Amino acid sequence: MDAIVELGNGFATALTPTNLAFALLGVLLGTAIGVLPGIGPAMAVALLLPLTRGLDVTTALIMFAGIYYGGMYGGSTTSILLNTPGESASVVTAIEGNKMARAGRAAQALATAAIGSFVAGTIATLLLALVAPTVADLAVQISPADMFAVMLLAFIAVTSVLGSSRVRGLAALGLGLTIGLIGIDATSGQQRLTFGIAELAEGIDVVVVAVGLFAVGEALWTAAHLRRRPVEVIPVGNPRMNRSDWSRSWKPWLRGTAIGFPFGAVPAGGAEVPTFLSYVTEKRLSKHPEEFGKGAIEGVAGPEATNNASAAGGLVPLLTLGIPTTATAAVMLAAIESYGIQPGPRLFDTEPALVWGLIASLFIGNAALLLLNLPLAPLWARLLRIPRTYLYAGILFFASLGAYAANANVFDLFLLLVIGALGFMMRRYGLPLLPAIIGVILGPFAEEQLRQALQISNGDLSGLVDPVAVVVYVIVALILLFPLIRRVLPKKAHVPVIDEAVHEIEEAHHHHGTTEAVSVEARARSDRSQDSDRT
Predict the structure, then answer these.
(1) For the chain, does the N or the C end have fewer beta carbons within 10 angstroms?
(2) What Rg value do the Cα atoms of the chain yield, rounded?
(3) What is the number of alpha carbons within 13 Å of residue 320 lying toward its C-beta?
(4) CA-to-CA distance for 20 and 93, rounded, in angstroms?
(5) For residues 374 and 129, what is the distance between their CA atoms, to the nearest angstrom?
């Protein structure tokens, strides 16, 4: 009941004219940027991050919530109409969604994606409101040793997602941790990795890192693979669904919600694994399995619901532990920290108006997304015709403007270019961006928890071993040893649905190399074979 009362107070905060206006603006901007080719929600949030610097923190985060959901909806539009997912979580939508569009059913694919996102987002946000306070209460009792163990779990989890390269993930994490070390050590007062450059003494602003890695890196990568021929956009009218479409979609929406929320709510979560798992589940349960690979509406409804439910679930560890599980959540964490607020167990006590206003705004953003974007779908389709040269030139301009506006420091523009080049090279060699950005944000916090734990035990390593920490270390060991365990187990011991999902993920990684390079690889692959069953 306390959560319901607090949620009511949150709606009072979110429904003020200013906050409501910025929530609607966030939805529109998020959708407009997310619908453009190769731009996922993480890049949309990173690009718009500097624009909120002058806003009140609650208003800024409410706007980001709208950008978050708007960017995901835009990503599904691009996947369906262009076969170009902006991130790995949208790959599955493109498998069936683009087939539906090519069969003249683009309107139905967009409708089931939008309504499924609304249904899943609403249910998952309600679960967030009910679960998050309990998690926060439990997290308050966690010792520094336990928190360090959880941070270690987050680091290992994001570098060891099923089907990805662990070595590349660890390399990306190492880069992020190194960037996070730059500046003055809070304990000793010594400068670290500043190389005598005075501007680096205060560290590198997370806004500059986020914008550089996501926006500038993606723009440079896409420019390097740019083809001059115009984009073929499938025409679309107002999205609509007939009775058969409704009957085939509502169960996948609910199943997708049930699959996505738990995956998003754990530190090892994210949307990649559950969306593939949802696709395989719908394929097995469908009464029309022969349509899969040719444009089955269940293959759009389930994964899209899963994606949105996972996004809401991802806010549980973000708000209660300060741990992001996706790239978009990592950029949102950077936004929160830029206001001097550290998400964690005490956030619900110290900033109740902020937290509950944000959760309430998710309901408002979801409803606004549905009401605004169903009639505006033809407009978003026209945005896809913007020439790529203009599009990415504009991205570089706004990224540079935003990085400069963050601190009004010309040196930040130089850093932006260097980090953007790093983001380009990471894409070139298949290093994922999520471990890097998490290393930058969580690295200093993990170091602080490690030092506190060792100070309590007078430097004895046994201070890092608490009952909760031991459980977390066991989970870390299982994650690291899972590939070996899977090889040792007999074939019959594999769970068929999960096993097939793992195979799907490995296929996607084989074809796309890395999650952030999905958009370019998907375009190249679709050019080679329009009839391919996988993006």
Answers:
(1) N
(2) 22
(3) 25
(4) 30
(5) 27
